[in-house]
Write a structure and sequence with these properties.
Blueprint lengths: L4 E6 L11 H12 L15 E6 L2 H21 L6 H11 L3 H13 L2 H22 L2 E2 L2 E2 L2 E6 L1 H15 L6 H10 L1 H11 L11 E7 L3 H4 L23 E9 L23 E6 L10 H6 L1 H11 L5 H12 L13 H18 L5 H10 L7
Parallel strand pairs: 1-2, 1-5, 5-6, 6-7, 7-8
Antiparallel strand pairs: 3-4
Length: 378
Amino acid sequence: MARPNVLFLVHGVGEQRGGWSQLPKTTLRKAAASYDCFPDTPDPLENEIEFVEIRYDDIFDLILERFEGLTEQFRRVDPALIPSQLQAILDTLGDLDNVGAKYAGDVLLYRLKLVSTTVLLRVMKQITEAVARIGLVRDGQPIRYGILGHSLGTTVVHDALHLLATQPVVASNTILADLRQSLPELAEEYVQDFGLNPFSAPNFQFEAIYMVSNTSRLLHTTEVGPYGSMVRPFNPGTRQGVCASFYNIDHRWDPISKVRPFRLADAWGGHTVDATQVEVEHVYQANVHALDHYLLNPRVHGAIFGHLAESFDFDAWDEADARVESDTFPRWGPGFEPEAKKRELEDELTEKLRAAIGEERIEKVQEFLVALKESKGD
């Protein structure tokens, strides 16, 4: 049995080397091993989900090096020539240690048009190339595509998918020839019937979009914000929307998602059919913002398996939800048994949460990211 479905994984801030997705993939595989519906093998998802890692982190490093070099050249000639915006960025990063600068700097740099455009072109290229490589049908069955963004990655996912759905990507006969070669299922009727964009809303649909610790309302760079964009469940009447299902996944004590939070009730004019809010509150490590920590929760990995793993049927999905309800999946993980330790961490997390609520400033996101910098998994 070939792996029929695909999950794109899009990272958040921090240093993300090639292979960064190994930890979330391992977390999902361990979770799958706990369900009887999956085979008892070293990798129970091997024939279920093909993971595609999306990486853009190295762009920030490259551009920051260029900025620093450019500033040094200006300084040699005339310090007054240094653009104020550039100097402000370097001053902000200079106030932080190296790790803190890496965490907070990604958020700051993404707000620059040059940087966000470069990041989005890279991400869109990786998505389209993967779809071209994998195709739309495998072994006679349609392939379902999902995409998961975490932290800053939710903004990157939002911006990239909105642009993919609204901007023509076929601009020459050469590109069209490539499309005919790589996506024959789309090419001919696409040219005749759909215009210039095979990834527009009526033409291509993600099975599910998973926004984990959603920052898109605060950090988006698209002209239209997440409440009005194409990144929503598809509506046949309006022909808008890029997915069949949309999940906004949030942790009770995650401060990052609380700075200008994404609220389904306010999104897309209230048309939120096939959109789900997933609220979790488990604590298995101090950094509740980490992606692998989110994925531990059955309500999170259950939503992923339910859409993309063929073996994970409705009974298994019900079991995942029941694990949380019945405390089979305990709220507090190993190492947090003493009540005093629980109260201490809960007080710390609550303090961060209170600081986030009501704030709608990028500086707050940077502040919280720096506070989380020593924890793994961002």
